[in-house]
Design a protein that fits this description.
alpha/beta
Length: about 290
């Protein structure tokens, strides 16, 4: 699987938080709460540094027990540090438990545990029926159709709701536009379809593919846009996106590297003069099991 470092996940988290669909999140929380008996139990797949927990725990209310699953032990360590820092910043108490943390908000207690697992090889080891809801974020565009078949089968067997947020949909709209944007975009789409450890990645087709799979299992599926809108004053993020686009394009089409480098120079100059805007397309998906 293609890895993500904790610094990048930290940089993108404010953009993710602003982009998430509040409507779908509220509907997921209502579905989870309606079936829970005792503390709400949530499993987060490809949890990274715990962004889903930080976004959703305050919306769920009440006592909660989260299992954050990831294949990267470095990110599992980052989970605890970032959650502890976030909880302290909110004025809540936080202390270590065996295998995780406990966050006490005064009105609720949230237990958070990390779990090391290779989701590409060992997805079926997870007992989804032991949880009230399943979440994942910024992940499904990395997987294959065959892997989504496996996930769909597990969800259907467990009959649990899923909230999958911030799946890339392929849109990148740079303003002002440049002639080379099309070549950069084409390279990005080809890179998306590469193998990230789960077989040929679905990329921008992932949300529609999963929606079809779960609808066939009788799920009610809803989607909503969750685009990043990166403004001219958010220069660090714009620079990151230009650097990423240049690296991907050069790796995908090395013979066009001079064209891509010129594009990068123009975009960097626009960032310096606060002339550049960028929209990055994402989709959120909520899937509710049949009654």
């Amino acid at each position: 699987m293609s890895g993500f470092d904790a610094n990048w996940l930290h940089q993108r988290e404010p953009f993710d938080l602003a982009a998430r669909s509040g409507t779908l999140a509220a509907q997921f929380c209502a579905a989870v709460a309606s079936s829970a008996n005792g503390p709400l139990r949530i499993i987060d797949l490809a949890a990274g540094a715990g962004a889903n927990f930080r976004a959703l725990a305050p919306l769920l209310h009440g006592d909660q027990d989260w299992l954050l699953v990831d294949h990267d032990p470095v990110l599992l360590d980052a989970q605890q540090a970032q959650i502890a820092r976030w909880a302290t910043g909110q004025g809540w108490s936080c202390h270590a438990l065996e295998g995780g943390l406990s966050v006490d908000t005064g009105s609720a207690r949230w237990r958070v545990r990390g779990h090391l697992l290779d989701l590409a090889q060992s997805l079926e080891q997870l007992e989804l029926a032991g949880f009230d809801g399943v979440t994942t974020t910024a992940f499904l565009d990395l997987v294959s159709a065959a892997w989504l078949d496996r996930l769909g089968a597990l969800l259907a067997h467990a009959r649990r709701p899923l909230l999958a947020t911030l799946t890339v949909d392929g849109q990148r709209d740079w303003l002002p536009r440049l002639p080379a944007d099309k070549f950069i975009h084409d390279a990005f789409l080809r890179h998306q379809s590469g193998d990230k450890g789960f077989g040929a990645s679905l990329g921008s087709a992932a949300t529609a593919c999963l929606a079809d799979r779960l609808t066939a299992h009788g799920y009610l599926v809803r989607t909503a846009r969750s685009d990043w809108h990166i403004g001219a004053d958010q220069r660090d993020m714009l620079l990151k996106m230009v650097e990423e686009s240049l690296a991907v394009a050069c790796a995908t089409e090395p013979t066009a590297s001079p064209l891509f480098a010129k594009w990068s120079d123009e975009r960097t100059a626009q960032i310096a003069s606060r002339q550049l805007l960028l929209t990055v397309g994402h989709l959120d998906l909520l899937a509710l099991p049949p009654a």
